[in-house]
Amino acid sequence: DGRFPIDRAYRVGAGDVAAFARDPVAARQVWSRAEGYPGDGEYLEFHKKHYPGGMRYWRVTESGGDLGAKQVYDPAKAEGRVKAHAEHFVGVLSKALAGKDDGVICVAFDTELFGHWWFEGPAWIEAVLRGVARLTSGISVETAGHALAESPPSRSIALPEGSWGEGGGHGVWLNDNTRWTWRLVYDAELRMSEAVRAAGRLGGARRVGAGRILREMGRELLLIESSDWQFLITTAGAPDYAERRLREHHDTFRRISAVWERFFERGGLSDEDGAILDAIEKHPRPFAAVDEKLWWGESIGNERA
After folding, report:
1. Does residue 1 register a pLDDT over 60?
2. Which residue(s) pair with 114 in the sheet?
3. 226: exposed, middle or buried (C-beta count within 10 Å: 0-12, 13-18, 19+)?
4. pTM of this prediction exceeds 0.85
5. 43: number of Cβ within 10 Å
6. What count of other Cβ atoms lies within 10 Å of the Cβ of residue 229?
7. Each residue of 229-278: pLDDT tens digit?
8. N or C: which end of the chain has fewer CB within 10 A?
9. Is cis: bond before 284, omega within 30 of 0?
10. Which of these ranges, 99-103, 105-109, 218-222, 259-263, has the smallest mean pLDDT?
11. Quick one: CA dihedral 32, 60, 115, 234, positive or negative?
12. Is the pLDDT of residue 185 over 90?
């Protein structure tokens, strides 16, 4: 109704959290099933692959059309569509910000869209950024933090509970088929919290040893907490894989947690437990640079006090 324009930030409630509203017009250019750029007939078709190599040789041709009717992909034509769509998107941005001195357009996308589902997506992003840079109207690309610092919120709003999932709720992640997964998540979170509080009572060399163990617990906890497991179970995308991965990460977490408990009781790390950690640390996985202090925070300070 115009009382709360979407081109600026707002405080959420009485706290220090700020929020930007996603611009529906700009977002629709990519996300709309009917109008979105990724559905253009010249772009690479994601769903059709050559067997057994798994290569993609076909273009979208007709969005929603039968896979058997897909025509051969032409990179040159796809490149032309990238340029056209980037120019169109820059035009959408320019129109939305025309005549405004401090307006902000927030358009949020899943990163996996670019290059995964939409093969030409990264080239489109580059073309959009270059197109904005060539403008003389004062439009610039900024981080949300910079935009917030330049134009702090002056009004507060109340945000209802919601998500990006189907229906705007949390049913994709919490339902009868995924309820058991949260018992594993909460078990790991509780054990991590207890370990953090106990670590606050340590000092010297034991503190160093505790950090090594807590880092491994933290890495495994982050993997357990991945929302992809519940998503894959609910959508039937890969339920067996998701269940196996979640259980494996939880089992590994419990092994590290047992190492922590013995470390805390004995005052040091045994050779056997050191070998367990050595083996786990050799596994290739994300979060290699995770800092155990992320979980220490106030709990350590409270223990010291």
Report:
1. no
2. 118
3. middle
4. no
5. 24
6. 26
7. 999 999 998 999 999 999 999 999 999 999 999 999 998 899 999 999 99
8. N
9. no
10. 99-103
11. positive
12. yes
For residue 52, give both structure tokens.
């057994």
Which two three-digit tokens encode residue 109? Answer: 């996308």
Neighbour count for residue 174 (Cβ, 10 Å):
14
Highest mean pLDDT among 110-119, 145-154, 181-190, 291-300: 181-190
How many residues belong to the chain?
Answer: 305
Single-letter amino acid code for the residue at 60: V
Report d(CA 70, CA 57) in Å as an integer.
9
CA distance 258 to 261: 5
**Phi, psi for 222 (deg, rounded to 5):** -60, -35
Token duo for residue 241: 């894989």
Cβ atoms of residues 42 and 78 within 8 Å? yes
5-43 pLDDT, tens per residue? 888 899 998 888 999 988 999 999 999 888 899 999 999
- Count CB-CB contacts under 10 A for residue 31: 18
Q: Do the Cβ atoms of 184 and 177 come closer than 8 Å? A: no
Q: Contact at 8 Å (CB) between 72 and 57? A: yes
